[in-house]
Amino acid sequence: MSRGLRLLPIILLIWILGTFAWRLIQPDDPTIRSQLVNREVPEFALPAVLPNTAGLKSTDLATGKPRLLNLFASWCVPCIGEAPVLDELRKRGVAIDGIAIRDNNGAVGAFLNRHGNPYERIGSDPTSRTQLALGSSGVPETFIIDGKGVIRLQHVGAIERSDLPRIMAELEKVR
Amino acid sequence: MIAEAGLAALWLAAALSLLGLFLSVLHVRGTLEADRPVRALAIVQGAMCLFAFSMLLLVFARTDLSVALVVENSHSEKPFLYKVAGAWGNHEGSMLLWVMVLGLSGAALATFSRQLSSRTLIAALGAQAALALGFHAFLLGASNPFARLNPAAPEGRGLNPLLQDPGLAFHPPTLYLGYVGLSVAFSLAVGAMLAGDVDRRLARAMRPWVLGAWIFLTLGITAGSYWAYYELGWGGWWFWDPVENASLMPWLAATALLHSVAVLAARNALKAWTMMLAVIAFSMSMVGTFLVRSGILTSVHAFAVDPTRGAFLLLLLGIYVSAAFALFAVRAGSLREGAPFEPVSREAGIVVNNLLLTVILGIVFIGTLYPLFVEALSGEKLSVGAPYFNAVAGPLAILLGILLAVGPLLSWRREGRPILRKLALPALFAATALVIAFLAIPQASPLSKFGLALAAGLIPASLVPLIGRNPLRTPLATWGMAIAHMGAAVSVAGMAADSAFTTERLTAVKLGETVSVGPWLVAFQGISPVAGPNWTAVEAELHASRGGGVSVLRPQTRFFTSPPTETNEAAIDTFLNGQLYTVIGRSDEEGRWQLRLWWKPLVTLIWLGGGLIGFGGLLAFAGHARRSWRKRLAQ
């Protein structure tokens, strides 16, 4: 067996180990990004959840002013953590609409009574059909939508207080 | 105290393996005669590991909620079997199991492998101690199974309900026995290369370990495949998932090694190649463990994922495998190849077998890691699925199958007898089956048609080596080989039949409705709630009939509370000619229930074949053991 051939396994091994080490240092980002960023919101019309709050249609999102679209559910634990941050955003003058995912109306009412209601309109999406159309894979998720109804940013997971400057800057940019 | 006793035993075992490594280095360098102390240390170290693992079983059996691992993986109301299985159904426990098997293997090596030269054996024990030391460091440094929780928890968090299944309780230990058995082959190869003693004696000492590891891997993979088939509820038996591939790769390497070690034992040939395979086989076990534990690949069953632990395992992998390959690079040149052989001979057949198996191993390895390599180079994300593996590995597997018919008929060194006559009948069977397949099932894939034809020829061909022999005087190892080869043929038949003949039906049915699948009429007769020890479920009642007789199937959707999870329990009815596989899904607003039905003709042959392969291996093992026992008595 020639010398070069005998060293081949060890060269291959170093390459493989190098790749493994690279992935360990740089773990995979498991978030699923929507294909719809920088495209128009797909058409939908969702019924109201609460008697005194309107339902949500895709046309409601193109009002000339940027707004947030927040997907949430009463059964979603991280949504509880996100509630005060959404409230803070509302106090800063951000318009927020909500979509309740796979939820029932009574539970949504109770959830909003307990954790605060930052939403101008709330649509109900009991089968996740609209959620899937938006390219969202879980709750909570938040989209920034500009005045023309085009999705500008997708935020996967709960919005933390540390995310506020980025969200505000993004809203300022699309104003 | 129980947990502390276990922990103390682990530290002691680690210290003993360090001492054993040190003494064996002195012995191999010739500065100190340490044969007996090294062997004694290996035995005591194994006993300490066994003790530590028994302590872990005990804290799990008693549901000691002051031990963090118990709290995370058990629950006081869990069935007893799963309480015990919970001990190894998690990262820390399974690593302790690994270390225990490693320690016991070292002890067995020290006890039974006396036929080796003292230098080779002690060098191998040193290599085994080095392996043990690394895994002890991993266990004690990064995943202590005995860590206490203060204050104790009021209740445990349970076990992933997907894993709460008798099949899975015994599946990981079986695979581990296989993985770790290969560690002994690795240590023996390293020891022999260090001592410069690669010969037939080494092959005879290595063979039972390879054979044993291979039997456990075969049974583990077979059981894992059946578990996935009936527990995951998707009706498939192999997914080419990274975790499955992680167990298939060492099996492929072990299969190749098993055959090349036979050549080394019988003919003193293929020395460098056998050493190489021994190193690769254990490397594949470690790569497999690393892939499952580090989470660097996305998998449907990613348990116990942790990058820190991944880094530790990668370090161990890097040290051991690169040291072994470096040793190989230095020593391979000095391994004089033994007896020569002709291009048509059993040796040559085994060389081709080894090449095919190694190429398939390469295909699986590349397919499993390709997404990772591509992303490292270009940042692009992609995934490799069943189409690649089937298209690339399938034809090679068919070639391997043809060789399976021819190889055992060849004689050592040089083939003088005409073997074509012996193969005439099997070849006729295969050709007839191929013609029938092309005429009768045009819709089936070419691969499954060739698979069916191959099986039709291979089942009789595997019996040819037994023809003309006195069954009582035929060595058990020959029986084992014939049965294992027949098992492979039976499995191929099952796989090909499953892909060629399965019919599937996905519908939504109301109570009282009847749907058909294959030859069956399935009536949806009832739906009712049922409760188990730690779950509640909705259970459907299905009455299936074809001609006479009705079988009742009760598929369930189960809800576990701790942690909250939903699983589908398929109901499967097995008949002589196939399985009826039913899964109940969700209900919609109009009161219809999702129902998935499969009629899978001959699918059970897949696992029956796996069992036969394992049984054949067991017979061969018994045959070799009896022979060496007789030799020892005669001396």
TrEMBL record, chain A:
It is found in: Cell envelope. Keywords: Cytochrome c-type biogenesis, Disulfide bond, Redox-active center. It comes from the Bacteria. Gene3D superfamilies: Glutaredoxin. Its main location: other. The keyword Disulfide bond applies. Residues 35-173 form the Thioredoxin domain. Belongs to the thioredoxin family. DsbE subfamily. This is DsbE family thiol:disulfide interchange protein. It comes from Sphingomonas telluris.
UniProtKB/TrEMBL annotation, chain B:
InterPro entries: CcmF_C, Cyt_c_assembly, Cyt_c_biogenesis, Cyt_c_biogenesis_CcmF. It holds the Pfam family Cytochrom_C_asm. The keyword Lyase applies. Coiled coil: none annotated. Keywords: Cell inner membrane, Cell membrane, Cytochrome c-type biogenesis, Lyase, Membrane, Transmembrane, Transmembrane helix. Residues 314-622 form the Cytochrome c-type biogenesis protein CcmF C-terminal domain. The chain crosses the membrane at residues 6-28, 40-61, 95-113, 120-142, 176-196, 208-228, 248-266, 273-292, 312-330, 351-373, 388-411, 423-441, 447-467, 479-497, 602-622. It is a multi-pass membrane protein. It comes from the Bacteria. Required for the biogenesis of c-type cytochromes. Possible subunit of a heme lyase. Belongs to the CcmF/CycK/Ccl1/NrfE/CcsA family. This is Heme lyase CcmF/NrfE family subunit.
